[in-house]
DNA sequence: GCGCGCTGATCTGCATGCAAAATGCAGCGT
DNA sequence: ACGCTGCATTTTGCATGCAGATCAGCGCGC
């Protein structure tokens, strides 16, 4: 199910995304023991890329080393999604504050470009459009963090935002949600361009709290049909 | 200079700490190109642990992949230390808020134990005492984050707090600073025990801002005698 | 004289081999 | 019947080998 769509990816990335995906979709259950050999067999790769992927997943908290030679899938609390949104709120509100002070014209132009692309895909006509929206959204947020000109934040983001995909949000946005999200993005750009850090931070906070609320509402109703890609 | 003190460490950790140390002390200069072969020669290890260390250092932002086969030491902005303290403030204030709600009796007992050990070493009589203080301090903060019961936060912390050691702060604390820091710690424990999230967060904020101010003051005066160990 | 393509050297990504450490199971002793 | 010790197996950590990609310097053409 995840084999053919991204054609160009080196073995380590394949291993990383493959294992992570298997954890998120539940193919690898919480607490299950992992061995490099089995994973390398399952994914058709050698142990080296598997090792590197496992190392990263341990750093990110998806996998835990118990003692010596025992490695297990981590156990996730039920408030995982809420946690991710809270942490993103901390990091991204701060980032956008800095971005409002430090963003260059190029940064702002890039944001506008991404925003335009997202508008063109709203409402999304097919699955591919959803895919593009999700990726553009990530790119948008990543661009803001990059505009904050802090290598530390960027490094944190590659951990935290990747994690945020735990809940592949965009595929469950209603059109109303999507439009609101787009409006937030537009307002964020305006606030950055106006060099108004507090304005930008407030919008970002609303943006992420809205996202969190949507996920929370969804988790309350449905609990079964996840794991769609 | 970093070879004999920690006797038990596997090759990957050795590589990680070795390279990171060489970057922090300036032995590897900003922008310098790195090759696995040279590093493995320098550190007397094979390429495999070097590769894994490089991978982690890239995630943490110490090293950058330029294009294809070119890997360089990252370039650090001058406000690096300030950045680290700001990010820690975001993450740790939030952590201690959660800790104030979720900490167990064991967590609080552990904090008290660490605190007592730090008091016993204050004022520090020798270099070893400084070392112990630094480590106990890290352990204290890590314990608080762990008490927040959020794997995400913990994962973030292993990136962000490790980074914070960029500035090996404790060796430049005056006795007054040390006492204030200890008082903060004591107050943090009390606030957590009293289940007072906002109180705890405020103290943590003060604690880290005080630390940041100290570093800032130091960077303003001295700029030469760093790189001690 | 200067730019461009080409070739050799270098470097990374990945696979595999090997030794040491850990696991777990069976047989022994109590 | 139960716990413990010892051994076979498994698993990781690290080293090394190899192929493809990249880089750097040279010669050729303009």
TrEMBL record, chains A, B:
Pfam families: FCD, GntR. This is DNA-binding transcriptional regulator, GntR family. Residues 9-76 form the HTH gntR-type domain. SMART domains: FCD, HTH_GNTR. Keywords: DNA-binding, Transcription, Transcription regulation. One of its GO terms (molecular function) is DNA-binding transcription factor activity. Transmembrane segments: none annotated. It comes from the Bacteria. It comes from Roseivivax lentus.
């Amino acid at each position: 199910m995840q084999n053919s769509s991204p054609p160009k990816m080196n073995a380590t990335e394949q291993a990383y995304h493959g294992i992570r995906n298997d954890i998120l979709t539940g193919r690898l259950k919480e607490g299950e023991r992992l061995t490099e050999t089995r994973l390398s067999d399952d994914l058709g790769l050698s142990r080296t890329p598997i090792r590197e992927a496992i190392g990263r997943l341990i750093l990110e908290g998806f996998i835990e080393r118990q003692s010596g030679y025992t490695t297990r899938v981590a156990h996730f609390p039920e408030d995982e999604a809420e946690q991710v949104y809270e942490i993103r709120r901390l990091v991204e509100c701060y980032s956008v504050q800095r971005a409002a002070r430090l963003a260059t014209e190029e940064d702002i132009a890039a944001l506008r470009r991404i925003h335009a692309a997202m508008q063109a895909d709203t409402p999304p006509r097919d699955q591919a459009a959803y895919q593009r929206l999700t990726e553009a959204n990530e790119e948008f947020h990543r661009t803001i963090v990059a505009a904050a000109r802090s290598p530390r934040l960027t490094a944190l983001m590659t951990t935290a935002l990747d994690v945020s995909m735990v809940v592949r949000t965009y595929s469950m946005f209603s059109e109303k949600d999507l439009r609101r999200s787009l409006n937030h993005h537009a307002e964020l750009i305006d606030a950055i361009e106006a060099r108004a850090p507090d304005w930008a931070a407030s919008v970002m906070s609303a943006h992420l709290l809205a996202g969190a609320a949507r996920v929370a509402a969804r988790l309350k109703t449905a609990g079964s049909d996840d794991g769609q890609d």
